[in-house]
Amino acid sequence: MNLSDLERIVSGGESDIVELKKSTAQLRRAAQTLCGMLNGHGGKVLIGVTPGSRIIGQEISDKTLRDVAEVLGKLEPTATVSQTRLDVGEGREVLILEALPNPELRPYVFDGRPYQRGGSTTSVMAQETYQGLLTERCHARTRWENELAGDYEVSELDHEELLRTVRLGIAAGRLPESTGSDPIDVLERLELSQRGSLNHAAIVLFGTRFMPDYPQCHLRMARFGGVDKSIFLDQRQLEGHAFTLLDEAMLFLRRHLPVAGHVVPGLFERDDEPSFPSRPCAKHWSTRFATGTTAFPVAR
């Protein structure tokens, strides 16, 4: 960008993609605006231009640049903001900060708060809008689980578990009756493959080969003799896909948790009830750890 380009932009005044700031004394407000632009279509903040569109510039020192870096570091997730310094004479410069948004990373926040740009105004984003953008990000196509898995083949998957999942999905009404039993077709329907190539989610859910690419598919389970984890009463390590790890973890817990039983009057059977429900809610986890029985992924 040269001075003529700057003058042309400034002559149009502020808009949803242009903000004018007199100096870096307004750096925090500038960062809020950049956050709003990142959540929109991008834009530029020109520091060294008055609200009346007069180009005055300012002296930019190493401290100025450190202050800018510190403030921009409060943008989350990590944002791309280009910085351009344009000499406007007499030792003064205009600092141009350009927000280059990645739609897959929205919503962006500055110092813990999300902002949006509407015309020439920057405001705190509404909670409903923020939640909507979070939902979109959770379903982004560029997430790790949606990336291709490399040289893994459909033949390396647990077909029995895959078809069992289909049967359960049909029985629960979450998959149509027409889903079928062809593994390749099923994987496409479940968005676990693209044109015959498996993604990471397919391996984690139904794979049979994990190391060294999927260390998260390794589970270590242990029962301790106390609460300090110094005495092991039982332990087990295994690897497998997510369904195997879940089943094995539940079996390990059921094997070690006490089960009370009582005879129900009028029935020829005993009613067994474990100390903790088989599908515990979050509040039970702290109690479970205190009993000395736990299951956790192995750190590699």
Radius of gyration: 29 Å
Shape from CA axes? elongated
Low-pLDDT stretches are 280-300
Beta-strand content estimate = 25-35%
Oligomeric status: single chain
Helix-strand pattern, N to C?
Answer: HEHEHEEEEEEHHHEEHEEHEEHE
Would you write up a description of this structure?
This protein has 3 domains: 3-138, Schlafen, AAA domain (Methyltransferase, Cobalt-precorrin-4 Transmethylase, Domain 2), CATH 3.30.950.30; 145-209, no CATH class; 216-297, no CATH class. The protein is an alpha+beta fold and 300 residues long. The strands form 5 sheets. The protein has a 4-stranded mixed sheet. The protein contains 9 helices and 15 strands.
What's the structural blueprint in terms of helices and strands?
Elements: H1 3-11, E1 18-21, H2 27-38, E2 43-47, H3 62-72, E3 75-76, E4 80-89, E5 92-100, E6 109-110, E7 113-118, E8 121-124, H4 127-138, H5 159-171, H6 183-189, E9 193-194, E10 197-198, H7 200-206, E11 218-224, E12 232-239, H8 242-256, E13 259-263, E14 270-274, H9 282-291, E15 293-297
Parallel strand pairs: 1-2
Antiparallel strand pairs: 2-5, 3-6, 4-5, 6-7, 7-8, 9-10, 11-12, 11-15, 13-14
